User: Fold this.
Amino acid sequence: MEVPIHRLVLWNIDLTLVDVARVTRAAYAEAFGKVTGWPLVRLPQMAGRTESEIFFEALALNEPGAPAAAPAGEEMLGRFAGELASAFGARRGLLTEQGRLLPGARAAVTAVGNLPGVVQTLLTGAIKPNAIEKLQAFGLERFFDTEVGGYGSEVFPKGALLLNARGRAAGKYGVEFTEEATVYIADSTRDVVAARMGGARSVAVVSGRSSAAELRDAGADMVLADLTDTANVVRAIDWLTTPAAAG
Assistant:
């Protein structure tokens, strides 16, 4: 008998599933220069952050000595997002050339997607068009319901994006995805905090810039060295999204 949908599994993309940092940095530099007229000399820390957070910090880090003509706001952020999508899309052919799918990622999302009652989606700081480009480059898009995900296109921190994604998923599937049945798989301490704020369990993968100890200290429910042990990934998610784990 088919098990009704009741579990929501959200995946981070960058440094959890893929590493396309070189392409991302080049696209950021181009988009930033077009919108501000300034060179992007210093790029802020990106792990676990949304595009809006990164952009506004980049403005502060790179603003020339002369005062800006006007304070940055949502209009400038909107123009930046448009330029970033264009710059990233123009480099789609470089994603597999200069980037890579992280070990075990494809097998992990395949196996997790086969768990009973699971919907897989995304929670990423990337704007939606760029998130989709990354998935398509490595043949991962078919594993996710991208319609209900949370993206850096929204001007909210990741914890709020997670709450929004849970609400969209509930509306689409007609079921409440409880905190005990929602899990976020990511690689940074900021992501672990976002999971707690957004009402989700967290599986932290030591594939980014946070150490296993830092991820545990941040409150990760499970910490994995990587995604290469598919059975272990599935066990972690299965255990965290069952009532027994809540106790």
User: Anything to note?
Assistant: The beta strands are 7-11, 18-19, 100-101, 118-122, 182-186, 201-205, 222-224. Confidence is low (pLDDT under 50) at residues 66-70.
